[in-house]
Amino acid sequence: MTISEKVAYIQGLFDGLKLDTEKSGEARILSEILDVLREMGQQLDSVDAAMDQFDEELDTLEDTVADLEEAVFDDEDEQDEDFDDEGDEDFFEIPCPTCGEDLVVDDEALAAGVVDCPVCGGKFALSFEDDENGSDGE
Ligand SMILES: [Zn+2]
User: Fold this and answer.
1) Alpha-helical segments (H) within 1-138
2) What pLDDT does residue 33 have?
3) Is 69 exposed, middle or buried (0-12, 13-18, 19+ CB in 10 A)?
4) Taking 80 as the threshold, does the pLDDT of residue 89 lie above it?
């Protein structure tokens, strides 16, 4: 029961008494008080309606902010996850010496010491002695 409904109920009780507000001072005061209560109830109703509207607008804003957050920040998260996934597997890529295609060197290829190129069909041995070229001068 809202306040307006309670006031209407009390108004009904008051009307049922059939008091003469012209002759009875008490009845006159009660009638005035009921008028004030009714007005307060109406104002509270409009405040409630305004609050409901604010709630809806706030929900819409929250959704918009959530969408924005997703658009702005989610890419980074996904990239991090992708990076983590790749980090679980031990492999690296080297360019095919024949055709330049990036070749995946995984555990299997490392163990065999040989990489097959799926593009040009070439095979070449893995060499880990490149260090000599890089550090020789120093
Ligand atoms: Zn190749």
Assistant:
1) 3-17, 25-88, 107-112, 131-135
2) 96
3) exposed
4) no
Structurally, the chain folds into a number of domains equal to 2
Same domain, 69 and 125: no
Give the residue numbers spanning the domain of 58: 3-88
41 CA → ligand 1 middle, Å: 83
Residue 60's pLDDT band (cuts 50, 70, 90):
very high
CA of 111 relative to ligand 1 center, distance in Å: 20
Assess whether 31 and 50 both reside in one domain.
yes
Kindly list the protein residues that place their beta carbon closer than 5 angstroms to ligand 1, a single-atom ion: 96, 98-99, 101, 117, 119-120, 122
Q: What is the largest CA-CA distance in the chain?
A: 118
Kindly state whether residues 84 and 106 are assigned to the same domain.
no
Q: Are residues 56 and 68 in the same domain?
A: yes
Cα angle 60-61-64, degrees, rounded to a multiple of 5:
90
More confident residue, 20 or 91: 20
Compute, in angstroms, the gap from residue 134 CA to the centroid of ligand 1. 24
Q: Are residues 72 and 24 in the same domain?
A: yes
Q: How far is the CA of 94 from the centre of ligand 1 (A)?
A: 11
12 lies in the same domain as 78: yes
